[in-house]
Amino acid sequence: MLNPFETKIKKMELKKLAQTLDLAAKNAKPIEQLSLSNSFDETTAYAIQKASLEERYARGEKFIGLKMGFTSKAKMEQMGVHDLIWGRLTDKMRLENNGKLELQKFIHPRVEPEICFLVKKEIQEELTLENAPEFIEAIAPALEIIDSRYQNFKFSLEDVIADNCSSAALVLGEWQKPEIDIKNLKIDLSIDGKIAQSGSSNAILENPWLSLCHASRLAQKYNQAIPVGSIIMAGAATSAVFLGKNQQIKAIVEELGSVAFSTF
Ligand code: OOG
Ligand code: MG
Q1: Closest to 141 in 3D by CA, of 231, 44, 221
Q2: pLDDT tens, 138-152?
């Protein structure tokens, strides 16, 4: 047990680390991995993440949902990290479908194709594969733009959790009926009309619905509400690809359709 004085120090340090990460994102200036000079566990990493989001909320950004990370082997292997993570999304991160992404606002952004769920009933329990569909209004093809605030996109599991799981931006395609079977759908990521990554929705925990179940479990564990209208990104189906200027990015998900943006 920490005595109240130690708790206070800890809170101050937490806030300082959260502000450091928030500023790095805001100014698009990378920082050294926090774990190189601080020792903190996964629970503390989530507390830093929460505190960094509070900086965003204080600037008027609104919570819009959650994202799951490292739900596919391709991503785990690419980043050398081996556990599921989750982060929080805000309205400012959302770019309209076919919109333009200004690369200058990011450090070293990468893009990855995903699937996104829209919540129709508040989630206050850990969902199962059986009851999860009752909570979902629609499903859309999605693109996530991740941008680690750490130099060289290098981090430990605790570092990336504290950094809100590299969340930077997202684009959603048109919402589709949730009855569509989303297992085993082909997912392609194309850049300037050429396929850059190709995978299957099966790569997402062998069933993207399972990612939603994990999101509900983790939200319960960390006391994060998932109100009606929230979105939940299931995690990338392929490795992520670095973005360059003046590119046309598109994800095509079999049955669900496509989603796109361009860079400048
Ligand atoms: C962390 C974010 C992982 C996913 O879909 O697996 C993620 C990172 O790779 O920087 O968003
Ligand atoms: Mg992702």
Answers
A1: 231
A2: 999 999 999 999 999
